[in-house]
Specification:
The protein is α/β, with parallel strands linked by helices. It has a single domain, classed as TIM Barrel, CATH 3.20.20.30. It has 12 helices and 13 strands. The strands form 3 sheets. The chain has an 8-stranded parallel barrel with strand order 2-3-4-5-8-9-10-12, surrounded by 7 helices. Strand 2, helix 1 and strand 3 form a beta-alpha-beta unit. Helix 1 packs parallel to helix 12, helix 3 packs across helix 5 and helix 6 packs parallel to helix 7. The chain is globular. The two termini are about 25 Å apart.
Length: about 375
């Protein structure tokens, strides 16, 4: 029996997407481009798109994430421009109060007819948040404690006629939200630390982990699955965020990655790394993906553990990760969100069936 997974796209509502290089493909960080990518993803059969939230660019020559569209605002517009695909936006717990984000997402749920989801970010980069007055100066684990109380209160607003809440960080006395979502919005999180995984399992519906196929990734995924089972949450999903570097051949894909490396923005990476280094109360517990920029000149222009290959052999590489890590879904990151995504959607992901994996992408084309 084939294993059925969901497939999503980490859409580039930010300049350069996820390529830290002056040789990055076109990704202007505009709503127009994000809309084009989202419509393509829906046409190809993807289940969802997720947009990041960013508050400050990396200060380097390439201006990585220097132009951005607000994730939450974009979600409302994207939902009106699509019919089927789920739209997941991102919010930082230190930026939005629970009652405010509960109302915003409830409105997005009505606008999208139930296709909305929320990615909950605790925030660990000092330079992303401090310049705008959003830094909370809490320790790593305490930030997740806040997130748990934050989500608990939001869920009350989405489900109760009158909300009373006396939590350790947030209070409510007779709060009212109407209309409430007809279907509770999906909650997702990408925390990879033990405390982050516990928060995801306890308070969310989906955990995203940085894919790569290494032993640590596989261990984290299986750990999250065990935690969900022990918590009595059989529908909890673990998904792998996978950076794909594709080409017509293996050699062409490697040449593309080498091209990005030739223009790697080390100054911007150093600035990004400094934000994590200044997180003095949580530095040692940050995930491997967060700490990757600290590799300096050894850091790659793309996210760690990128999967490099031809459109023909990438299906086997993706399937191996899905099977070994027991994933329920994948979230794709690609350099070129038009040509690469189109080719993967029509040529690569449909071939997952050859490896016992059922995926909607490409099935109706």
């Amino acid at each position: 029996m084939a294993k059925e997974i969901q497939a999503g796209v980490f859409i580039p509502t930010v300049r350069s997407g996820w390529v830290h290089s002056t040789n990055a493909p076109h990704a202007p960080g505009s709503f127009k481009h994000a809309l084009e990518v989202t419509r393509l993803a829906e046409y190809l059969g993807f289940d969802f798109v997720l947009s990041p939230q960013n508050w400050r660019a990396a200060q380097g020559p390439h201006r990585f994430w220097g132009d951005t569209v607000d994730s939450i605002a974009a979600a409302g517009a994207l939902s009106q421009a699509t019919d089927r695909i789920n739209i997941w936006c991102t919010a930082h717990i230190s930026v939005h109060k629970p009652a405010a984000i509960a109302k915003i997402v409830a409105s997005l749920s009505e606008i999208s007819e139930g296709r909305i989801g929320l990615n909950v970010v605790t925030g660990g980069n000092y330079m992303q948040l401090y310049p705008l007055g959003f830094w909370d100066d809490m320790g790593h684990d305490e930030r997740y404690d806040v997130a748990q109380d934050w989500v608990t209160l939001i869920r009350k607003y989405w489900s109760e006629a009158v909300v009373t809440h006396d939590g350790p960080y947030f209070k409510a006395d007779g709060g009212i939200l109407s209309p409430r979502p007809a279907r509770r919005p999906t909650l997702v999180n990408a925390g990879a630390s033990p405390r982050g995984l516990k928060f995801a399992v306890d308070s969310c519906d989906v955990a995203f982990l940085m894919g790569g196929g290494d032993a640590k990734f596989i261990e984290q995924s299986k750990m999250a699955k065990r935690m969900a089972k022990e918590a009595g949450k059989p529908d909890f999903k673990v998904m792998g965020a996978m950076t794909i570097i594709p080409g017509e051949t293996q050699e062409a894909a490697q040449a593309l990655l080498d091209h990005f490396e030739a223009g790697v923005d080390l100054q911007g990476l150093a600035d990004l790394a400094s934000g994590y280094e200044k997180n003095t109360k949580g530095f040692e517990k940050l995930s491997a993906s967060s700490l990757a920029p600290l590799g300096g000149k050894d850091y790659k222009s793309v996210m760690p553990c990128a999967i490099v290959g031809s459109y023909d052999n990438l299906a086997e590489k993706i399937a191996r990760q899905v099977n070994e890590a027991e994933l329920d879904g994948i979230l794709l990151i690609v350099p070129d969100y038009i040509s690469h995504l189109g080719q993967l959607g029509t040529r690569t992901l449909p071939r997952l069936a050859e490896y016992g994996i059922k995926c909607k992408v490409g099935s109706t084309l």
